[in-house]
Amino acid sequence: MVFYLKKKSDMIDRAWLFIVYAKNQHNALIGTWRFDGGTEFLNDAFKNMLCDNGILSETSVPYMHQQNGRAEPLNCTIMDKAQSMCFCACLTDTMWEFSWDHVIHIYNHTPISHLKWRTPFEALRNEKPDVSHLRIFGCGAYVFLPEDVRANKLSPKSETMIYFGQPAGYKGYCFYRITNG
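Below the sequence we write its predicted structure tokens.
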């Protein structure tokens, strides 16, 4: 799961959203929140929020990325894969959020050794994931255009677009319209 921040001060709201999501959707309570010494974590409001909810906070030693366990290597893996996807699809780096979302979606549907070759999806929901919806990030696709959005009856019934993955909270796909000119 990933939350994007426009500014570091947004972190407290996103952290709270994650805590509530974990509790409501998966009946999971967070016992300890480990973080690096980033300035977004070192404010009293964040520490008070954790304390008020009975969550212990642990700060790793500065410049010791090894103390962040699987988080740091996973961030590097996600970044490398997302960057490769954008390069392979000939997309600019402004599309990084879409490639990150797609990489994380694939990661959650891929067997992992430390989960005894189960997927994160399977470990969380106790059911095997369906991967039939997966497509190649950045591939071309003909997207059907309903009559309501066509200019007239002679307009094309589909348009070539670029596949960008599955948007969270929707049953469908995300496409990028290619503009001419």
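The CA atoms of residues 111 and 139 lie 24 Å apart.
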